[in-house]
Amino acid sequence: MSDIAKAFQLALDADDVSGVALNVGTGKSTTVLDVAEVLASELGVEIEPEIVEKFRHGDVRHCWSDISAITDALGYEPS
User: Fold this and answer.
1) Residue 37: CB partners within 8 Å, gap ≥ 6?
2) Are 37 and 51 in contact (CB under 8 A)?
3) Which pLDDT does position 25 carry in this prediction?
4) pTM
5) Gap between the Cα atoms of 22 and 75, Å rounded
6) Distances (CA, A) of 37 to 12, 13, 23, 33, 49
């Protein structure tokens, strides 16, 4: 079962999380390049991502999901 399916199942079985926003993820950082490679593989396409090394004001450089709320509320642990 995927992490997302597991999180949905835990939420559906819980009585006290209605209306609560819970982040689902690995809790680890993943690069955009890694995401592009996984998507290309899953879609069965060959793609060479273009990395331009240009950054704009306001660009988010590092971001990952904080899964502490779903872990505390539902006992969720990513696989």
Assistant:
1) 49
2) no
3) 87
4) 0.65
5) 12
6) 32, 34, 23, 6, 8
